[in-house]
Amino acid sequence: MEPEVSVSTPQDRGWTPDSGEGLHYGSFANSLASLTHQAPERITPRQAKIAVAVLCYINLINYMERYTIAGVLLNLQKFFDISDSTAALLQTVFICSFLLLAPLFGYLGDRYNRKYLMIGGLSVWLVTAAASSLVTESLFWLLMLLRAMVGIGEASYSAIAPTIIGDLFTGAQRSVVICIFYIFIPIGSGLGYITGAGMAALTGDWRWALRITPIMGVVGLVLLVFLCPNPPRGAAETNGEGVAGQSSYKEDIKYLLRNKSYVWSTLGVTATTFLTGAMAFWMPTFLSRARIAQNLRPPCVKEPCNATDSYIFGAVTVVTGILGGCLGTGLSRWLRDKVPNVDPMICAAGLLGSAPCLFVVIFVASANIPTTYVFIFLGELLISLNWAVMADILLYVVVPTRRATAEALQISVGHLLGDAGSPYLVGVISDAVSRSDPTSHIWSFQSLKYSLLVCPLVGVLGGVFFSVAALYITEDKKAALRLVEAEDSQPYQGPSPEPALELSTQKK
User: What is the mean pLDDT of residues 402-426?
Assistant: First the structure.
Protein backbone atom coordinates (compact mmCIF):
# COMPACT_ATOMS: atom_id res chain seq x y z
CA MET A 1 0.00 0.00 0.00
CA GLU A 2 1.43 3.38 -1.03
CA PRO A 3 1.42 5.94 1.79
CA GLU A 4 -0.84 8.97 1.45
CA VAL A 5 0.69 12.40 1.89
CA SER A 6 -0.69 15.85 1.30
CA VAL A 7 1.74 18.17 -0.45
CA SER A 8 0.85 21.77 -1.05
CA THR A 9 0.71 23.18 -4.54
CA PRO A 10 1.80 26.66 -5.66
CA GLN A 11 -1.85 27.72 -5.45
CA ASP A 12 -1.95 26.77 -1.74
CA ARG A 13 0.76 29.36 -1.17
CA GLY A 14 -1.04 32.11 -3.08
CA TRP A 15 0.92 31.60 -6.32
CA THR A 16 -0.57 32.84 -9.57
CA PRO A 17 0.83 32.51 -13.10
CA ASP A 18 1.38 36.24 -13.36
CA SER A 19 3.15 36.74 -10.05
CA GLY A 20 6.34 34.89 -10.89
CA GLU A 21 6.42 33.49 -7.36
CA GLY A 22 7.75 29.97 -7.16
CA LEU A 23 9.66 30.15 -10.45
CA HIS A 24 13.29 29.50 -9.61
CA TYR A 25 14.83 28.89 -13.01
CA GLY A 26 15.69 32.39 -14.21
CA SER A 27 13.94 35.26 -15.94
CA PHE A 28 13.42 33.12 -19.02
CA ALA A 29 10.69 31.26 -17.14
CA ASN A 30 8.77 34.48 -16.54
CA SER A 31 8.64 35.17 -20.27
CA LEU A 32 7.00 31.79 -20.92
CA ALA A 33 4.01 31.95 -18.61
CA SER A 34 2.00 29.71 -20.86
CA LEU A 35 4.55 26.95 -20.45
CA THR A 36 5.19 27.24 -16.75
CA HIS A 37 3.54 25.39 -13.90
CA GLN A 38 -0.22 25.32 -14.38
CA ALA A 39 -3.04 24.92 -11.89
CA PRO A 40 -3.21 21.25 -10.93
CA GLU A 41 -5.46 19.21 -13.19
CA ARG A 42 -7.84 16.88 -11.41
CA ILE A 43 -7.60 13.74 -13.48
CA THR A 44 -10.35 11.12 -13.28
CA PRO A 45 -9.47 7.42 -13.65
CA ARG A 46 -11.21 7.41 -17.04
CA GLN A 47 -9.19 10.39 -18.25
CA ALA A 48 -5.98 8.74 -17.06
CA LYS A 49 -6.75 5.57 -19.02
CA ILE A 50 -7.57 7.55 -22.16
CA ALA A 51 -4.32 9.51 -21.77
CA VAL A 52 -2.32 6.29 -21.52
CA ALA A 53 -4.03 4.96 -24.65
CA VAL A 54 -2.99 8.10 -26.54
CA LEU A 55 0.59 7.92 -25.28
CA CYS A 56 0.79 4.24 -26.22
CA TYR A 57 -0.45 4.98 -29.73
CA ILE A 58 2.18 7.67 -30.24
CA ASN A 59 4.84 5.37 -28.82
CA LEU A 60 3.75 2.77 -31.37
CA ILE A 61 4.15 5.06 -34.38
CA ASN A 62 7.44 6.46 -33.03
CA TYR A 63 9.01 3.01 -33.09
CA MET A 64 7.31 2.05 -36.36
CA GLU A 65 8.97 5.04 -37.99
CA ARG A 66 12.33 4.31 -36.39
CA TYR A 67 12.58 0.80 -37.87
CA THR A 68 10.83 1.32 -41.19
CA ILE A 69 14.19 2.03 -42.81
CA ALA A 70 15.60 -1.25 -41.49
CA GLY A 71 12.70 -3.03 -43.19
CA VAL A 72 13.63 -1.57 -46.59
CA LEU A 73 17.39 -1.38 -46.08
CA LEU A 74 18.26 -3.59 -49.05
CA ASN A 75 16.16 -1.39 -51.35
CA LEU A 76 17.65 1.76 -49.90
CA GLN A 77 21.23 0.51 -50.42
CA LYS A 78 20.46 -0.29 -54.04
CA PHE A 79 18.74 3.08 -54.61
CA PHE A 80 21.59 5.18 -53.20
CA ASP A 81 24.39 2.68 -54.03
CA ILE A 82 25.89 2.84 -50.52
CA SER A 83 27.94 0.47 -48.36
CA ASP A 84 26.96 -1.13 -45.03
CA SER A 85 28.74 1.51 -42.96
CA THR A 86 27.21 4.41 -44.92
CA ALA A 87 23.72 2.93 -44.64
CA ALA A 88 24.17 2.56 -40.89
CA LEU A 89 24.87 6.31 -40.65
CA LEU A 90 21.14 6.91 -41.15
CA GLN A 91 20.48 5.34 -37.78
CA THR A 92 23.52 6.96 -36.20
CA VAL A 93 22.61 10.56 -37.12
CA PHE A 94 19.03 10.00 -35.95
CA ILE A 95 20.14 8.62 -32.59
CA CYS A 96 22.81 11.32 -32.15
CA SER A 97 20.29 14.12 -32.55
CA PHE A 98 17.90 12.21 -30.30
CA LEU A 99 20.42 11.86 -27.49
CA LEU A 100 21.80 15.39 -27.76
CA LEU A 101 18.35 16.97 -27.45
CA ALA A 102 16.99 14.65 -24.78
CA PRO A 103 18.73 16.51 -21.87
CA LEU A 104 17.18 19.78 -23.06
CA PHE A 105 13.70 18.28 -23.10
CA GLY A 106 14.39 16.63 -19.76
CA TYR A 107 15.28 20.00 -18.24
CA LEU A 108 12.19 21.64 -19.75
CA GLY A 109 9.99 18.68 -18.85
CA ASP A 110 10.73 19.10 -15.13
CA ARG A 111 9.88 22.81 -15.27
CA TYR A 112 7.32 23.58 -17.98
CA ASN A 113 4.09 22.24 -19.45
CA ARG A 114 4.92 18.76 -20.69
CA LYS A 115 1.93 18.50 -23.01
CA TYR A 116 2.95 21.59 -24.99
CA LEU A 117 6.52 20.32 -25.28
CA MET A 118 5.33 16.99 -26.71
CA ILE A 119 3.00 18.72 -29.17
CA GLY A 120 5.85 20.86 -30.48
CA GLY A 121 8.24 17.94 -30.78
CA LEU A 122 5.70 15.69 -32.48
CA SER A 123 4.90 18.42 -35.02
CA VAL A 124 8.58 18.63 -36.03
CA TRP A 125 8.69 14.83 -36.24
CA LEU A 126 5.72 14.71 -38.61
CA VAL A 127 7.12 17.27 -41.04
CA THR A 128 10.65 15.89 -41.21
CA ALA A 129 9.59 12.23 -41.39
CA ALA A 130 7.28 12.98 -44.32
CA ALA A 131 9.96 15.06 -46.05
CA SER A 132 12.38 12.11 -45.83
CA SER A 133 10.27 10.28 -48.42
CA LEU A 134 10.85 12.99 -51.05
CA VAL A 135 14.65 12.72 -51.27
CA THR A 136 16.14 11.78 -54.66
CA GLU A 137 19.07 9.40 -55.23
CA SER A 138 21.60 12.25 -55.60
CA LEU A 139 20.73 13.79 -52.21
CA PHE A 140 21.62 11.13 -49.67
CA TRP A 141 23.10 13.86 -47.45
CA LEU A 142 19.64 15.47 -47.26
CA LEU A 143 18.10 12.19 -46.14
CA MET A 144 20.69 12.03 -43.35
CA LEU A 145 19.88 15.61 -42.31
CA LEU A 146 16.15 14.92 -42.20
CA ARG A 147 16.71 11.73 -40.21
CA ALA A 148 18.65 13.80 -37.69
CA MET A 149 15.74 16.26 -37.41
CA VAL A 150 13.29 13.41 -36.81
CA GLY A 151 15.22 12.86 -33.57
CA ILE A 152 13.89 16.19 -32.22
CA GLY A 153 10.36 14.88 -31.96
CA GLU A 154 11.38 11.54 -30.47
CA ALA A 155 13.61 13.25 -27.91
CA SER A 156 10.72 15.36 -26.63
CA TYR A 157 8.34 12.44 -26.42
CA SER A 158 10.62 9.74 -25.02
CA ALA A 159 11.93 11.97 -22.23
CA ILE A 160 8.52 13.26 -21.12
CA ALA A 161 5.81 10.67 -21.78
CA PRO A 162 6.91 8.14 -19.11
CA THR A 163 6.94 10.86 -16.46
CA ILE A 164 3.30 11.70 -17.21
CA ILE A 165 2.40 8.04 -16.71
CA GLY A 166 4.39 8.11 -13.46
CA ASP A 167 2.21 11.00 -12.28
CA LEU A 168 -1.07 9.29 -13.21
CA PHE A 169 -0.50 5.92 -11.52
CA THR A 170 1.48 4.44 -8.66
CA GLY A 171 2.42 1.08 -7.16
CA ALA A 172 1.36 -2.12 -8.88
CA GLN A 173 -1.02 -0.23 -11.17
CA ARG A 174 1.86 1.87 -12.46
CA SER A 175 3.89 -1.27 -13.19
CA VAL A 176 1.07 -2.65 -15.31
CA VAL A 177 0.55 0.61 -17.21
CA ILE A 178 4.28 1.05 -17.80
CA CYS A 179 4.36 -2.53 -19.09
CA ILE A 180 1.59 -1.74 -21.58
CA PHE A 181 3.35 1.46 -22.67
CA TYR A 182 6.73 -0.20 -23.22
CA ILE A 183 5.28 -3.25 -24.93
CA PHE A 184 4.57 -0.88 -27.81
CA ILE A 185 8.33 -0.52 -28.36
CA PRO A 186 8.77 -4.04 -29.79
CA ILE A 187 5.28 -3.97 -31.32
CA GLY A 188 6.08 -0.72 -33.10
CA SER A 189 9.53 -1.96 -34.10
CA GLY A 190 8.09 -5.16 -35.54
CA LEU A 191 5.32 -3.34 -37.38
CA GLY A 192 7.96 -0.96 -38.74
CA TYR A 193 9.65 -3.85 -40.55
CA ILE A 194 6.35 -5.25 -41.76
CA THR A 195 4.70 -2.02 -42.93
CA GLY A 196 7.94 -0.72 -44.43
CA ALA A 197 8.57 -3.85 -46.46
CA GLY A 198 4.86 -4.19 -47.27
CA MET A 199 4.48 -0.66 -48.60
CA ALA A 200 7.67 -1.01 -50.66
CA ALA A 201 6.40 -4.27 -52.17
CA LEU A 202 2.89 -2.92 -52.75
CA THR A 203 3.96 0.31 -54.45
CA GLY A 204 7.31 -0.75 -55.91
CA ASP A 205 8.91 2.29 -54.28
CA TRP A 206 10.63 2.10 -50.87
CA ARG A 207 9.93 5.81 -50.24
CA TRP A 208 6.24 5.06 -49.71
CA ALA A 209 7.31 3.10 -46.64
CA LEU A 210 8.35 6.41 -45.04
CA ARG A 211 4.94 8.03 -45.62
CA ILE A 212 2.66 5.72 -43.68
CA THR A 213 3.81 6.71 -40.16
CA PRO A 214 3.51 10.51 -40.69
CA ILE A 215 -0.11 9.93 -41.76
CA MET A 216 -0.73 7.95 -38.58
CA GLY A 217 1.18 10.63 -36.65
CA VAL A 218 -1.33 13.34 -37.60
CA VAL A 219 -4.01 11.32 -35.81
CA GLY A 220 -1.71 10.99 -32.79
CA LEU A 221 -1.12 14.75 -32.70
CA VAL A 222 -4.85 15.50 -32.68
CA LEU A 223 -5.43 12.96 -29.91
CA LEU A 224 -2.55 14.41 -27.89
CA VAL A 225 -3.95 17.94 -28.14
CA PHE A 226 -7.47 17.04 -26.99
CA LEU A 227 -7.13 13.98 -24.76
CA CYS A 228 -3.81 14.10 -22.91
CA PRO A 229 -3.58 16.06 -19.62
CA ASN A 230 -0.56 17.58 -17.90
CA PRO A 231 -0.88 16.21 -14.32
CA PRO A 232 0.97 17.83 -11.39
CA ARG A 233 4.39 16.30 -10.82
CA GLY A 234 4.16 13.66 -8.13
CA ALA A 235 0.35 13.64 -8.29
CA ALA A 236 0.12 9.85 -8.02
CA GLU A 237 2.08 9.83 -4.76
CA THR A 238 0.29 12.83 -3.23
CA ASN A 239 -3.40 12.27 -3.95
CA GLY A 240 -3.36 14.64 -6.92
CA GLU A 241 -1.81 17.61 -5.13
CA GLY A 242 1.67 17.39 -6.63
CA VAL A 243 5.16 18.12 -5.41
CA ALA A 244 6.78 21.55 -5.72
CA GLY A 245 10.50 21.03 -6.30
CA GLN A 246 13.06 23.84 -6.10
CA SER A 247 16.46 22.84 -7.40
CA SER A 248 18.92 23.83 -10.09
CA TYR A 249 19.88 21.59 -12.99
CA LYS A 250 23.32 21.12 -11.43
CA GLU A 251 21.71 19.89 -8.21
CA ASP A 252 19.52 17.51 -10.22
CA ILE A 253 22.58 15.99 -11.89
CA LYS A 254 24.41 15.60 -8.56
CA TYR A 255 21.37 13.89 -7.07
CA LEU A 256 21.19 11.42 -9.94
CA LEU A 257 24.91 10.64 -9.91
CA ARG A 258 24.68 9.82 -6.19
CA ASN A 259 21.78 7.48 -6.87
CA LYS A 260 23.75 4.27 -7.37
CA SER A 261 20.89 2.08 -8.57
CA TYR A 262 20.01 4.75 -11.16
CA VAL A 263 23.62 4.92 -12.39
CA TRP A 264 24.12 1.16 -12.66
CA SER A 265 20.70 0.52 -14.19
CA THR A 266 21.43 3.26 -16.74
CA LEU A 267 24.59 1.38 -17.73
CA GLY A 268 22.46 -1.74 -18.06
CA VAL A 269 19.99 0.14 -20.25
CA THR A 270 22.94 1.32 -22.36
CA ALA A 271 24.09 -2.26 -22.97
CA THR A 272 20.52 -3.24 -23.84
CA THR A 273 20.16 -0.45 -26.41
CA PHE A 274 23.56 -1.28 -27.92
CA LEU A 275 22.51 -4.90 -28.37
CA THR A 276 18.98 -4.30 -29.60
CA GLY A 277 19.96 -1.37 -31.83
CA ALA A 278 22.52 -3.36 -33.78
CA MET A 279 20.40 -6.52 -34.00
CA ALA A 280 17.26 -4.62 -35.00
CA PHE A 281 19.02 -2.68 -37.77
CA TRP A 282 21.01 -5.55 -39.28
CA MET A 283 19.14 -8.80 -38.57
CA PRO A 284 16.75 -8.78 -41.59
CA THR A 285 19.71 -8.05 -43.89
CA PHE A 286 21.82 -10.73 -42.16
CA LEU A 287 19.09 -13.35 -42.62
CA SER A 288 18.60 -12.38 -46.26
CA ARG A 289 22.33 -12.77 -46.92
CA ALA A 290 22.26 -16.12 -45.11
CA ARG A 291 19.62 -17.37 -47.56
CA ILE A 292 21.76 -16.20 -50.46
CA ALA A 293 24.82 -17.95 -48.99
CA GLN A 294 22.79 -21.19 -48.82
CA ASN A 295 21.61 -20.71 -52.44
CA LEU A 296 18.03 -20.48 -51.20
CA ARG A 297 17.56 -17.13 -52.90
CA PRO A 298 19.34 -15.29 -55.75
CA PRO A 299 21.22 -12.05 -54.92
CA CYS A 300 19.23 -8.85 -55.20
CA VAL A 301 20.42 -6.85 -58.21
CA LYS A 302 17.48 -4.44 -58.56
CA GLU A 303 14.91 -3.06 -56.15
CA PRO A 304 12.46 -4.01 -54.79
CA CYS A 305 14.42 -6.78 -53.04
CA ASN A 306 12.83 -9.81 -51.40
CA ALA A 307 11.40 -8.72 -48.03
CA THR A 308 10.48 -12.11 -46.55
CA ASP A 309 12.89 -11.81 -43.63
CA SER A 310 11.66 -8.30 -42.78
CA TYR A 311 8.13 -9.69 -42.47
CA ILE A 312 9.14 -12.70 -40.37
CA PHE A 313 11.57 -10.81 -38.14
CA GLY A 314 8.97 -8.09 -37.63
CA ALA A 315 6.34 -10.63 -36.61
CA VAL A 316 8.75 -12.33 -34.21
CA THR A 317 9.62 -8.95 -32.68
CA VAL A 318 5.94 -8.13 -32.09
CA VAL A 319 5.11 -11.49 -30.49
CA THR A 320 8.21 -11.66 -28.29
CA GLY A 321 7.72 -8.05 -27.24
CA ILE A 322 4.20 -8.71 -25.98
CA LEU A 323 5.06 -12.01 -24.31
CA GLY A 324 8.34 -10.79 -22.83
CA GLY A 325 6.93 -7.52 -21.55
CA CYS A 326 4.00 -9.25 -19.84
CA LEU A 327 6.23 -11.99 -18.43
CA GLY A 328 8.77 -9.50 -17.06
CA THR A 329 6.10 -7.39 -15.37
CA GLY A 330 4.30 -10.48 -14.08
CA LEU A 331 7.48 -11.82 -12.49
CA SER A 332 8.16 -8.40 -10.99
CA ARG A 333 4.72 -8.15 -9.37
CA TRP A 334 4.79 -11.76 -8.17
CA LEU A 335 8.24 -11.62 -6.60
CA ARG A 336 8.53 -8.00 -5.47
CA ASP A 337 7.23 -8.61 -1.94
CA LYS A 338 9.49 -11.64 -1.52
CA VAL A 339 12.58 -10.27 -3.28
CA PRO A 340 12.83 -6.45 -2.94
CA ASN A 341 15.56 -6.18 -5.59
CA VAL A 342 13.86 -8.49 -8.09
CA ASP A 343 13.53 -5.89 -10.89
CA PRO A 344 17.24 -5.48 -11.73
CA MET A 345 17.69 -9.22 -11.26
CA ILE A 346 15.04 -9.86 -13.93
CA CYS A 347 16.87 -7.49 -16.27
CA ALA A 348 20.20 -9.18 -15.56
CA ALA A 349 18.73 -12.65 -16.17
CA GLY A 350 17.16 -11.49 -19.44
CA LEU A 351 20.42 -10.17 -20.88
CA LEU A 352 22.60 -13.01 -19.63
CA GLY A 353 20.13 -15.59 -20.92
CA SER A 354 19.88 -13.96 -24.35
CA ALA A 355 23.64 -14.07 -25.00
CA PRO A 356 23.94 -17.82 -25.77
CA CYS A 357 20.80 -17.62 -27.91
CA LEU A 358 22.34 -14.87 -30.01
CA PHE A 359 25.58 -16.82 -30.42
CA VAL A 360 23.53 -19.71 -31.82
CA VAL A 361 21.67 -17.33 -34.15
CA ILE A 362 24.92 -15.96 -35.58
CA PHE A 363 26.56 -19.34 -36.22
CA VAL A 364 23.53 -21.43 -37.24
CA ALA A 365 22.17 -18.97 -39.82
CA SER A 366 24.50 -20.32 -42.50
CA ALA A 367 23.13 -23.85 -42.05
CA ASN A 368 19.48 -23.74 -41.00
CA ILE A 369 17.15 -20.72 -41.22
CA PRO A 370 14.17 -22.23 -39.28
CA THR A 371 16.44 -23.11 -36.33
CA THR A 372 17.88 -19.61 -36.51
CA TYR A 373 14.40 -18.12 -36.10
CA VAL A 374 13.70 -20.34 -33.09
CA PHE A 375 16.72 -18.91 -31.28
CA ILE A 376 15.91 -15.38 -32.44
CA PHE A 377 12.53 -15.87 -30.79
CA LEU A 378 14.11 -17.08 -27.53
CA GLY A 379 16.74 -14.33 -27.49
CA GLU A 380 14.24 -11.55 -28.17
CA LEU A 381 11.84 -12.98 -25.60
CA LEU A 382 14.51 -12.82 -22.90
CA ILE A 383 15.58 -9.30 -23.86
CA SER A 384 11.94 -8.17 -23.85
CA LEU A 385 11.64 -9.07 -20.17
CA ASN A 386 13.54 -5.82 -19.55
CA TRP A 387 11.58 -3.11 -21.35
CA ALA A 388 8.87 -2.30 -18.82
CA VAL A 389 10.93 -3.29 -15.76
CA MET A 390 13.78 -0.93 -16.67
CA ALA A 391 11.38 1.99 -16.93
CA ASP A 392 9.65 1.13 -13.65
CA ILE A 393 13.00 1.12 -11.85
CA LEU A 394 13.66 4.74 -12.81
CA LEU A 395 10.21 5.91 -11.73
CA TYR A 396 10.48 4.56 -8.20
CA VAL A 397 14.13 5.36 -7.41
CA VAL A 398 13.94 9.01 -8.59
CA VAL A 399 11.78 11.72 -7.01
CA PRO A 400 8.92 13.07 -9.22
CA THR A 401 10.40 16.53 -9.80
CA ARG A 402 13.55 15.02 -11.33
CA ARG A 403 12.10 12.20 -13.39
CA ALA A 404 12.13 13.99 -16.75
CA THR A 405 15.78 14.91 -16.22
CA ALA A 406 16.52 11.31 -15.19
CA GLU A 407 14.69 9.94 -18.26
CA ALA A 408 16.54 12.36 -20.53
CA LEU A 409 19.98 11.55 -19.14
CA GLN A 410 19.30 7.83 -19.36
CA ILE A 411 18.22 8.30 -22.96
CA SER A 412 21.34 10.34 -23.76
CA VAL A 413 23.82 7.95 -22.16
CA GLY A 414 21.96 4.87 -23.35
CA HIS A 415 21.90 6.01 -26.96
CA LEU A 416 25.28 7.74 -27.03
CA LEU A 417 27.08 4.60 -25.90
CA GLY A 418 24.41 2.24 -27.23
CA ASP A 419 22.51 2.27 -30.52
CA ALA A 420 23.94 5.56 -31.77
CA GLY A 421 27.12 3.71 -32.63
CA SER A 422 26.34 0.00 -32.59
CA PRO A 423 24.75 -0.25 -36.09
CA TYR A 424 27.60 1.82 -37.53
CA LEU A 425 30.23 -0.19 -35.65
CA VAL A 426 28.80 -3.43 -37.00
CA GLY A 427 28.73 -1.91 -40.50
CA VAL A 428 32.34 -0.73 -40.29
CA ILE A 429 33.55 -4.15 -39.11
CA SER A 430 31.53 -5.80 -41.85
CA ASP A 431 33.00 -3.53 -44.54
CA ALA A 432 36.52 -4.13 -43.24
CA VAL A 433 36.13 -7.93 -43.28
CA SER A 434 34.40 -8.01 -46.68
CA ARG A 435 37.34 -6.25 -48.36
CA SER A 436 39.08 -9.63 -48.43
CA ASP A 437 36.65 -10.67 -51.18
CA PRO A 438 34.27 -7.82 -52.00
CA THR A 439 32.59 -9.59 -54.94
CA SER A 440 31.62 -12.75 -53.05
CA HIS A 441 28.06 -13.00 -51.77
CA ILE A 442 29.14 -15.68 -49.32
CA TRP A 443 31.86 -13.45 -47.91
CA SER A 444 29.36 -10.58 -47.68
CA PHE A 445 27.34 -12.81 -45.34
CA GLN A 446 30.41 -13.96 -43.40
CA SER A 447 31.60 -10.39 -42.82
CA LEU A 448 28.27 -9.38 -41.27
CA LYS A 449 28.23 -12.60 -39.26
CA TYR A 450 31.58 -11.88 -37.60
CA SER A 451 30.74 -8.23 -36.97
CA LEU A 452 27.53 -9.17 -35.10
CA LEU A 453 29.52 -11.13 -32.50
CA VAL A 454 30.02 -7.91 -30.56
CA CYS A 455 26.30 -7.89 -29.62
CA PRO A 456 26.05 -10.89 -27.26
CA LEU A 457 29.32 -9.85 -25.60
CA VAL A 458 27.84 -6.46 -24.73
CA GLY A 459 24.68 -8.23 -23.54
CA VAL A 460 26.72 -10.15 -20.96
CA LEU A 461 28.24 -6.88 -19.77
CA GLY A 462 24.75 -5.40 -19.37
CA GLY A 463 23.73 -8.34 -17.21
CA VAL A 464 26.64 -7.55 -14.90
CA PHE A 465 25.57 -3.90 -14.66
CA PHE A 466 22.02 -4.81 -13.62
CA SER A 467 23.38 -7.28 -11.07
CA VAL A 468 25.33 -4.46 -9.42
CA ALA A 469 22.24 -2.21 -9.46
CA ALA A 470 20.42 -4.92 -7.49
CA LEU A 471 22.78 -4.29 -4.57
CA TYR A 472 21.57 -0.70 -4.08
CA ILE A 473 18.01 -0.51 -5.36
CA THR A 474 16.14 -1.27 -2.12
CA GLU A 475 17.72 1.59 -0.19
CA ASP A 476 17.47 4.04 -3.10
CA LYS A 477 13.75 3.29 -3.47
CA LYS A 478 13.19 3.99 0.24
CA ALA A 479 15.19 7.23 0.00
CA ALA A 480 13.05 8.50 -2.89
CA LEU A 481 9.84 7.65 -1.00
CA ARG A 482 11.06 9.46 2.12
CA LEU A 483 11.73 12.62 0.10
CA VAL A 484 8.16 12.61 -1.19
CA GLU A 485 6.81 11.95 2.31
CA ALA A 486 8.85 14.73 3.90
CA GLU A 487 6.79 16.91 6.24
CA ASP A 488 8.99 19.98 6.07
CA SER A 489 11.07 21.81 3.50
CA GLN A 490 14.30 20.05 4.47
CA PRO A 491 15.51 17.18 2.31
CA TYR A 492 15.95 13.74 3.75
CA GLN A 493 19.48 13.17 5.02
CA GLY A 494 20.25 9.55 4.25
CA PRO A 495 23.50 7.63 4.16
CA SER A 496 24.47 9.58 1.04
CA PRO A 497 24.00 13.39 1.31
CA GLU A 498 21.51 14.76 -1.17
CA PRO A 499 21.38 18.25 -2.70
CA ALA A 500 18.50 20.44 -1.62
CA LEU A 501 15.08 19.44 -2.84
CA GLU A 502 12.37 21.49 -1.23
CA LEU A 503 9.00 19.82 -0.78
CA SER A 504 6.43 22.22 0.55
CA THR A 505 3.85 20.34 2.60
CA GLN A 506 0.78 21.17 4.54
CA LYS A 507 -0.92 19.04 7.17
CA LYS A 508 -4.66 18.66 6.99
Answer: 86
